[in-house]
Amino acid sequence: MKTRIAEITARIRERSADGRRAYLARIDALAARPPGTERMGCANVAHAFAGMPGDQRLRVVAERAPNLAVVSAYNDMLSAHQPYENYPALIRDAARRLGATVQVAGGVPAMCDGVTQGLPGMELSLFSRDTIAMGTAIALTHDVFDGALLLGICDKIVPGLLIGALHFGHLPCVFVPAGPMATGLSNSDKAKVRELHAQGLVGRDKLMEAEQAAYHGAGTCTFYGTANSNQMLLEAMGLHVPGAAFVHPHAPLREALTREAVATLLGITKRQRYTPIGRLVDERVIVNAMVALLATGGSTNHLIHWVAVARAAAIRIDWTDFAELSAEVPLLARVYPNGQADVNQFQAAGGTGFVLRELLDAGCLHGEVATVASGGIAAYAQSPVLAEAEAEPVQVRWQPAPVESLDTAIVRPAAQPFSPSGGLKLLTGNLGRAVIKVSAVPEDRHVVEAPALVFDSQEALLKAFAAGQLERDFIAVVRFQGPRANGMPELHKLTPPLAVLQGKGFKVALVTDGRMSGASGKVPAAIHVSPEALAGGALAKVRDGDRIRLDAVNGQLDVLIDDAAWAARPVHALDPAQAEGNAHGLGRDLFGGMRRHVSSAEQGAITWL
């Protein structure tokens, strides 16, 4: 283990000690209780299992067979989650063969950010994470389960399921992915068409053709955004069956991995190698997730989500921890938007097994941690394959990950990384604290100094671009986009016009208290600025023409104004009409309490504390 990574882990452990001790005591008390069928009244038990077939009811009540919960984010609105439709039947069959029973304990909502980008629905996206966490808790609160299988993949869904599960920390849990869609139109070609459309050089018909060629089937989107970053982090945390992340939904191996998830969960219940999720997810496992994110240039959204995940296990991390880890972690992968490859090509080049093996050997991961598979993180430095093509049911075995990268343009060994440090940086200064993803930003754009153009909405910036008013050097300040203002929507619609302007040679950058997608790329963007403008943050003081310096090399974000004058300048208030618009319509009224009580982005945008 690298000395500095060990020191950062120790600091997190010490910072979290009191809360973690109390958390573990609570889950130990829950774990010490008799099974639900013995603990509950007869009427409670009868209600719990009334819907089961008679033989299954006998098995769980009289024979005390293990009873597994399924919490599913299935819907066919999300291409990534559409394959989950038939998983309950498959899981029940796998459990029956192993002498266990299964109940679908509940479903949780799952929205597609790709559908809602730039639309009012995106203002519910971040809050959907905590809604999913609460839905997970409601599903598991029936309290008759020996373990849980969690079916979810995409942006807020995995963090929400994980937060909910950690509030039932006495239960063993295994995450069950479904895999990426097949490669279609390349992500870089798709981006080019978007930029041409932003310039008015191609029409909506050509844009629609390109988008449908890119997003064309079941599975996750193939770029390395938040959804696929989720899968990388779950592998690094040891919460998947090893190597399950990036196998196509319709491959025979996918069924074998799903069946193996059931066997894996049964192997960590109280009857076997008891590994409750609340004990598995300790500070070392959280650091392993952070390291995997940094080493692969993953989604900036996880600088919010994994703060909240850690907090659910009574572990406290912050952006300083991310920044200091980034300085120690080599960048080992280039997957779009940080490169040209998609996740299918990443998998073919060595995938998660290769990256985790390299990080482990380089002393960047804690190897001696609990995982749902036996053997610790070393088990995740392997690749799954079908045991026998004709076996019934299909079965899986593992082989060592490739010793060498199968494509050094996509993944590299730790001794020859793309960069000696990770792809995320912390920025501080008189504008607050922010983060920037630099792994895809050209080096000559890591420092931008230019006058500010201030917008109180992304629509205002897009309108200015369409009117030809942005043909100059500038730093766009897009404010009142934080959690309290409007739910902190992603501002991914800003990427094409800003990329067009950068391509014309202008010095451009974005500074915002909102989020950018995990697909944010080559335009420098200081995001998640905290405190947010609505909470009195410094972005509310910025005026058109103020000179701003965004320096990702030295980690600075400043308005270049005399300190006394800056301190004396009043904050700009959000237009009441805009505030009213943010609060109503398309379900936004229901989330008013969350907007009022949500914590800052750096504190995880948590609504449940």
TrEMBL record:
Residues 410-605 form the Dihydroxy-acid/6-phosphogluconate dehydratase C-terminal domain. [4Fe-4S] cluster binds at residues 154, 221. Binds 1 [4Fe-4S] cluster. GO terms for molecular function: phosphogluconate dehydratase activity. It comes from the Bacteria. Its cofactor is [4Fe-4S] cluster. It is an enzyme of class 4 (lyase). It catalyses: 6-phospho-D-gluconate = 2-dehydro-3-deoxy-6-phospho-D-gluconate + H2O. Residues 66-377 form the Dihydroxy-acid/6-phosphogluconate dehydratase N-terminal domain. Its EC number is 4.2.1.12. The keyword Iron applies. Pathway: Carbohydrate metabolism; Entner-Doudoroff pathway. Keywords: 4Fe-4S, Carbohydrate metabolism, Gluconate utilization, Iron, Iron-sulfur, Lyase, Metal-binding. Catalyzes the dehydration of 6-phospho-D-gluconate to 2-dehydro-3-deoxy-6-phospho-D-gluconate. Belongs to the IlvD/Edd family. This is Phosphogluconate dehydratase. It comes from Pseudaquabacterium terrae.
